Amino acid sequence: MKPSWRKPAPLGWSAAREGQYTTAAPLLGGASITLLGLVITDRDRFRWPDPTLLALALTALFMVMAVVWGVRSRQYLYSRGDVEAWWGPLSEMSDDRHEELIQDQRMHYSMWSRLAGRADFCYSSGLLCLATASSLALVPPAHAAAPAWRWLAAGTTAAPVVVVLLAWAMPYLCNVIRKWQADDHGST
User: For residue 130, is it within any domain?
Assistant: First the structure.
């Protein structure tokens, strides 16, 4: 069986990623840098300014890295149509040249997928840090009255953080439990 051209699935995923790294990540990174300045200048208005600053700094770092990995990955994503635009119709090429171009595209697609995966990890981590920072910033200062609405807002923004962390940790925890159970049953 001859190798074929690789394509993202779903087909719109590469365009969605591109928007994520060229629009969303820079905007969120810039907003977190702005919020850093706000927390630094008004420390007394926050219950936990230092953890808030850490979460915002991590947000900025992850968002910048999402942009870097996203842009680096994009150079490796191209289609059969892109190849034909540069090299001419594939039907007019020798079988060896056609096969070589397919192999190059498959190798480059794998590189795109790996680098885009890094960008996805950084973007997701940045969103998680931003939600953490938002939750920390919403907690009322210790010296202020603690209105229920403010605590509710802090809890509401903390909930996705807990859910995501559990979703990331559950496969690992399940494997640990399975191994523990297997070891326990093996020793009896």
Answer: yes
